[in-house]
């Protein structure tokens, strides 16, 4: 972990984080990496639902969910029963000095519990309150579950991904949630800048549906203005709107990607001049699957290293296709120091992807491990002036919780 004494851009900013799963926690982790004091408010004992979900029943250190560890570093955990009036008093005491509240429960849940925007604004008019949802705060889908893959299906990205003779293909990561997290950060920082100018807080609302559509704007503009949907290719072409050679191609020991490149130059590298018969824009689109198959027959004669060396020498836009483990060992990834780690009291050494931005004066940093449920309950309650006996009473009466 990094030296916590290094100045950070969001140092002094306090965030009350009620979020769970991916969208909200990733957003608050991004802010925490920049120095914000993120207090993660969790259910005593159970905590964030992601603590109990994992891939392939694998647990880091035998007990900790990689899903939770991925999105919750640099935070403190305060375990409170939100339905307890005394817990609400504690949260509102914290809110008086807080800057931001983040939550991604279904619309209406937080307000019914007494933790809506108006409740926080009543004790702190400068508060920035950010809500994340699947489909917005109202409308015909408001009661639907707003899960990542469901949003991908609704917004066109799934229908545009994969090959035509296969089912629509979801992206192999939580793309909708991660776009939503970025939009949360964008909205929160914008609201904080406005607050500095006006003195006023505000509510920020982010939803996955809007985010996924906005991040496909070039595809949406094309489809809507020509009233024509994209048709998925039936080969390794990499985008439903692109012509050959754009796509993925086999080698003797793997796959390479080839992006927008002069077709004649590519053919020259591969050494089959018969392919030049396809070299006009209309043919490269209308016969793109046929072209892909013929190109693939040629790339399949090369090893990945040899083909990349030849393509790069000819200034062809290309790259390898790597697995997650392969990406972690990539020389450029290593050069940039993107794979980092921290020590966790139960999981041991946890390898993670570090912050993705660089700042010359206030760099982001990993200074805390992902917390255990209620790990910082005593520490945080003490800042409100509660003594040990009072904290012990709250814990004994199940208003608050601490880690094992």
TrEMBL record:
Annotated Pfam families: CoA_transf_3 (PF02515)
Entry-linked InterPro entries: CoA-transferase_III_domain, CoA-Trfase_fam_III, CoA-Trfase_III_dom3_sf, CoA-Trfase_III_dom_1_sf
GO molecular function terms listed in the Swiss-Prot or TrEMBL record: CoA-transferase activity
Keywords: Transferase
Entry protein name: Carnitine dehydratase
Taxonomic lineage of the native organism: Bacteria, Pseudomonadati, Pseudomonadota, Alphaproteobacteria, Rhodobacterales
